[in-house]
Amino acid sequence: MTTLTEAQAVGPNNTARKLTYVKAFNEGLAQAMREDENVFVAGEDVAGYGGVFRMFDNLLDEFGPRRMIDTPISEAALVGLGVGAAARGLRPVVDLMFMDFIGVCLDQIVNQAAKMKYMFGGSVSVPLTITTASGAGLGAAAQHSQSLEAWLAHVPGLKVVMPSDAYTAKGLTVSAIRDDNPVVVMLNKVLLGSTCEVPEEIYGIPLGQAHTARQGSDVTVIALGRMVGEALAAADELAAEGVEIEVIDPRTVQPLDTETMFASVRRTNRVLVVHEAVTFGGLGAEIAAQIQDAAFDHLDAPVLRIGAPFSPVPFSPVLEKAYVPDRARITQGCRRLLERS
Amino acid sequence: MAQKKSADVAAHQISAQVIKDLHERMVRIRLFETEAGTLMEAGKLPGFLHLYVGQEAVAAGVMAALRDDDQITSTHRGHGHAVAKGVGFREMYAELYGRATGACLGRGGSMHINDVTRGMLGANGIVGAGVPIAVGAAFAARYKGEDSVAVTFFGDGATNIGAFHEGANMAAILGLPVVFVCENNGYAEFTPQSKHMLLTDVAERAAAYGMPSVIVDGMDAVAVHRAAAEAVDRARSGGGPMMIEAKTYRYYDHQGVKGLRHPYRSAEEVAEWKARDPIDLLEVRAVADGTATRAELDDAWQRTRDEIAEAIAYAETSPLPDTADLLLNVYSG
């Protein structure tokens, strides 16, 4: 009996084919723009240049300058433009290029976009999508490499998604655009050229629904963004030793699907959370706290967190490699958890 | 009908009807605010209150040049803009009281009063933050092929913050129908303009963005209205953004009614500005040139007083929000 992959299951005609992460994002965005005339894209170099990461390649040709808008390097005005346009019924997609740049427009994201519906008494919705490239690994140093999901996930009113592969890059982007709330799509720079099966047709991936990327019975590894791939590689390595790792990809970190995590922990009794962001105050701390609250009696070991050390992202490749969590650290972490019984 | 109003003004024919309209809007703001101040002093209102008294000519003059579908973004001192744009007294007072019937269902308070059905995209607790949002509203109008405009109100102090400069440049480079209205009341909270910028005229900042500007007497509702009508017509017809600097004055403190701690301005200065009260100025002029009778003007005050008394009673008898609904509207859907 053949089972369909998640990607193959999307299309009735089984039209999945290999696509890169960045092309999958681009395809999802283009399809969402075809689906809804109110979707437009604004940002620095998104139209004429197609985006510095080629995220917006060819979209100007298809959609023209009315819907593909190059803006000044002016992130506060850019996000503000998105907030105002969203409040007036459009579905803006604004691109912040590097996630580190949210520092210059955080007010518009945190105090305006996120809170408008609530503090206005529900009279407006802000269906705004903010796309941005996050993550270390390209020698881009401290101001072009951060993973700041914990900042944003802390703000009521925002949603935050972290695609871990090409399939989720497309599906989560489509869902973000269709959603009536402000959603930050954290693309990962290192993954832009990675490939996997991606359906040709438009599809959304439900926000707030985790995906069990691999089933296992010994340790649950909850991995964010690029760390999902590292966790799957670690699981392969450990499988050779007879250790079965369950890998959970939350996909959305706000809202966070904790139920899937709890259910897994009740079976495996051991949990490791891994993310690129610094460990201190990261999503791992929140997940660990929720797991001990909901499943304390099922734990055979304390929840282990793996993240970056409490330092800015370093430049020199040797330092950067030591900084970012990887397969080896996840493997070590799983072994440590299994030593306790 | 609404569209025609703007065209009339462009011809600089300030009719008796417009004078009465300006007067009524100013009276409504004045009484709303003085009553709110009284309620605050009486300890009836929670939270902060940034009163608009003294600046009425600006909101009235600009709003009388707008259509219902034109959009505005406002400031922490937003009641005047809301009243002049037609937001109802009932939901405004109910909001100040934190009631479930308020403009924000009791979730926003003074600094977030809004009415999207009347193009009021909200007061705003963050200085300068409304500027880019108005740019977005103007973008949406053009995108949808509508000819509405967006007006953003901000103070002299807000022109020192990045959001103002970014928003001004964005509106200019995209050629969007935005009117920038600087209400220069001379103070950024308690700091006089001379201590927060080297310019005398904020309007000079418009030139940096290739945007025309005009300076008007912000105590003269007719002058504000003429300038606004011109800027609005220009924006509506595709001429791009423009800035109006209205020199005005805040009678009350930055927050609340009475001065706190040491005085930061002189009694003489306050008296000088009050001698040119915007409502007095308009009333004297209207009676002198026969556009309104004293009785008509008095009638506007009385009607407004009655409406306010009814609205306050409504607010005071309105239900408080249900704590079970605390999470209402955090998210859509």
Automatic annotation (TrEMBL), chain A:
Claim: Iron is one of the keywords in the record: no
SMART domains: Transket_pyr (SM00861)
Residue ranges occupied by any Transketolase-like pyrimidine-binding domain in the UniProt entry: 19-194
Pfam families documented for this protein: Transket_pyr, Transketolase_C
Coiled coil: none
Cofactor: thiamine diphosphate
Keywords: Oxidoreductase, Pyruvate, Thiamine pyrophosphate
Keyword Cytoplasm: no
Molecular function terms, GO-annotated: magnesium ion binding; oxidoreductase activity
CDD domains: TPP_PYR_E1-PDHc-beta_like
Name of the protein in question: Pyruvate dehydrogenase
Automatic annotation (TrEMBL), chain B:
InterPro entries: DH_E1, PDH_E1_Alpha_Subunit, THDP-binding
Organism superkingdom: Bacteria
Coiled-coil regions listed in the entry: none
GO molecular function annotations of the record: magnesium ion binding; pyruvate dehydrogenase (acetyl-transferring) activity
Every Dehydrogenase E1 component domain range: 24-321
GO BP term, pick one: pyruvate decarboxylation to acetyl-CoA
Cofactor annotation: thiamine diphosphate
UniProt keyword terms in alphabetical order: Oxidoreductase, Pyruvate, Thiamine pyrophosphate
PANTHER family registered for this protein in UniProt: PYRUVATE DEHYDROGENASE E1 COMPONENT SUBUNIT ALPHA, PYRUVATE DEHYDROGENASE E1 COMPONENT, ALPHA SUBUNIT BACTERIAL AND ORGANELLAR
Name of this protein: Pyruvate dehydrogenase (Acetyl-transferring) E1 component subunit alpha
Source organism (scientific name): Streptomyces dysideae
